[in-house]
Each structure stands twice: as structure tokens, then as C-alpha cells.
Write a structure and sequence with these properties.
The protein is an alpha+beta fold. It is built from 4 helices and 5 strands. The chain has a single domain, classed as Double Stranded RNA Binding Domain (2-Layer Sandwich). The chain has a 3-stranded antiparallel sheet with strand order 3-4-5, with helices on one face. A two-stranded antiparallel ribbon has the order 1-2. Helix 2 packs across helix 3.
Length: 144
């Protein structure tokens, strides 16, 4: 079982992991060892709660960047490639951590900010700081 939080866990059978060769410089280690990890997770077919699935799929469509979250394909499959470390074990842990953080990012519901007028104390403190700043600047002026 892949533990996401204390309430949510996934069977390891839902996560497809394959080892591939890393890209880039690294000498003979890169040429002969498949140390990079390619993780695939199908959101729609998973045992995640429905509201998690809906938020993950919504994350694909509308994210901070114009094209949405690029780790999620149009079919709803999360693709994570980890090749930062030399060992396959550390890359596997890194890929699982990224998947966990992606799922936990949609678990937190961000409530919209309620716009309220400033309190009386905030208003008074703001005016006092403006008055103090004005006095400091007035002391800088040349004496006549």
C-alpha cells in the first residue's frame, strides 16, 4: 500500500513503475544502468475518493500555466519521470514523493478570502505610523 495521508492510501497495483535509462551526462553509468524511474498513475481508474479525482482532473485543465498541469495527460494519467539521483531506489522514492505531493495539493481546500473593512485598531495604527513617518521626514528638512 502507498500511504498518501493517514486516511488515504493506494494499492501499489494502481501505480505503474518502469525503470529507464537516464538522460544527460554521467559517463558509463548512464549507458549501462537504468536508474531513472517512469511512474504512471491512472486517475480515473484509481481507488481515490471522487472529489480527489475531480480536483486532479480539474488541475489538468486549469492550472497556473496556460496549458494546465503538464504531468497529467488528456486521458487523466499522471506521468512522473524522476532521474535526479544515481540510484534507482532514490529515484523511485522521489517519484512517489512527487505523486504524494500532487495528490495532497488537491486535498487542501482553499477558501476564498472574505473582504472585510479594517478594524478600528488597524485604522488607528495605520494613521499613527503615517504620523510617525511624517515627523521623521520633517526632522530631515533644513532648519531655517
Amino acid at each position: 500500500m502507498f500511504q498518501i495521508s493517514k486516511n488515504i492510501s493506494l494499492p501499489l497495483g494502481e501505480i505503474e513503475i518502469s525503470a529507464i535509462r537516464s538522460q544527460g551526462a554521467g559517463g558509463q553509468n548512464v549507458n549501462k544502468v537504468a536508474s531513472a524511474i517512469h511512474l504512471r498513475f491512472d486517475i480515473v481508474a484509481s481507488s481515490l475518493p471522487e472529489h480527489y479525482k475531480a480536483r486532479l482532473l480539474k488541475l489538468r485543465d486549469s492550472s497556473a500555466c496556460a496549458k494546465g498541469d503538464r504531468r497529467i495527460t488528456a486521458e487523466g494519467i499522471v506521468v512522473i519521470k524522476s532521474q535526479e539521483h544515481r540510484s534507482q531506489k532514490r529515484n523511485r522514492e522521489e517519484a512517489f514523493d512527487r505523486l504524494r505531493s500532487l495528490i495532497l495539493s488537491v486535498a487542501v481546500v482553499v477558501l476564498p478570502r472574505k473582504i472585510r473593512p479594517p478594524s478600528v485598531g488597524q485604522h488607528r495604527r495605520r494613521l499613527e505610523s503615517k504620523k510617525r513617518r511624517s515627523e521623521i521626514k520633517e526632522l530631515r528638512r533644513s532648519v531655517e
